[in-house]
Amino acid sequence: MKNNTLAVFAMIAALLGIGSMFHVQTAEASPRMMIADNGMDMKGMDMKDMKGMNMEAAPATHSGTGTVKKIDVAKGVVTLAHGPIASLRWPAMTMSFELKDAALAKGIKAGDAVDFELVRSQDSYVITRLHLSGK
Question: How much of the chain is in helix, strand and coil states, percent to nearest 5?
Fold first, then answer.
């Protein structure tokens, strides 16, 4: 009967979670241990409305080199014959780009070898940095 009583008590204790009473976290516990112990699995957690957090990713910047074919400062557009841009999987080609700021074209003319950076802006790519190659 003693064994049966002990077994019944153990089952009741397990069902009531009494075992967890002996594993109490206190303020002295290391925050790292508390996080590790609690799991903190945030997969599936909707984080788009977190106050005070800018959840938009910064636009990817891509770099290239090329030769200026044409530049229209008034329109803020430059036409480049550029080499391959690996990060975009683009082959070498000639195309026109909008300049983020017309001032980027200062001191640059057709025929100049240039280095540039561009980012995606809605449905096109915009040059955010343009300078003579090697400078």
Answer: 25, 35, 40
The CA distance from 130 to 76, in Å, is 12
State residue 41's pLDDT score: 57
The reply to whether 128 falls in a domain is yes
* 65 lies in the same domain as 34: no
C-alpha span between 42 and 19 (Å, rounded)? 27
pLDDT of residue 79: 98
The closest of 125, 15, 105 to 61, measured between CA atoms, is 125
Contacts of residue 101, defined as CB under 8 A and 6 or more positions apart, other chains included, come to 76
User: For 32-56, what is each residue's pLDDT tens digit?
Assistant: 555 555 555 556 666 566 565 555 5
